[in-house]
């Protein structure tokens, strides 16, 4: 399978929490962006919850016609060096017009997405990939990203559900963690990976790099 080289890159507290409102308060948050740049991942991937908080327009798309797309397909609305990929399985998020964006949006969704939503994305000049009968087929989506959109390196930048989905699908080459000098400690806050079934075995990693910053943050890199 031809696919991009994929790295999961996250900033955490020392107790492994990734709540953005919390990490933004820590010393070293600027080091997160410098380390992301150093990874050379022009295309980045976010989950629906993260995108809803940080990128999408307010509100939810309400299809008048729920007829599903019902097949694999894609629409390339822009040629770019990198894309802002968002996983939105059922096609719920609203977007501004993306015409002329330097790093354009690209939506990953399942074949259950309403045809009306895909027409809406086309109208907003937003690329999309639909694959997977009930849930997104991430492996096939990665093949399409490589073959049709020219994506060679890609960073998964959260949250825990999408990080874990790529891990479970065996699509990650590296895990990159910038650990900031702070403790969260609140109950039930999101961690880098979360939601695996109890039958999943431990994923063993190989340490490939450690770097300390003046901020007190530490950058850890692991290969799978």
How would you describe this structure to a colleague?
It is a single chain. The longest helix has 12 residues, at 138-149. The protein has helices spanning 20-23, 29-38, 48-54, 115-123, 138-149, 160-168, and strands spanning 5-12, 43-46, 73-75, 84-87, 105-109, 127-130, 153-156, 174-179, 206-212, 218-223. The chain has 6 helices and 10 strands. The chain is globular. Strands 3-6-5-4-2-7-1-8-10-9 form a 10-stranded mixed β-sheet, with helices on both faces.
Write the layout of secondary structure elements.
Layout: E1 5-12, H1 20-23, H2 29-38, E2 43-46, H3 48-54, E3 73-75, E4 84-87, E5 105-109, H4 115-123, E6 127-130, H5 138-149, E7 153-156, H6 160-168, E8 174-179, E9 206-212, E10 218-223
Parallel strand pairs: 1-7, 1-8, 2-4, 2-7, 4-5, 5-6
Antiparallel strand pairs: 3-6, 8-10, 9-10
Mean pLDDT: 95
Largest sheet entry: 10 strands, mixed
For the biggest β-sheet, the strand order reads 3-6-5-4-2-7-1-8-10-9
Number of helices: 6
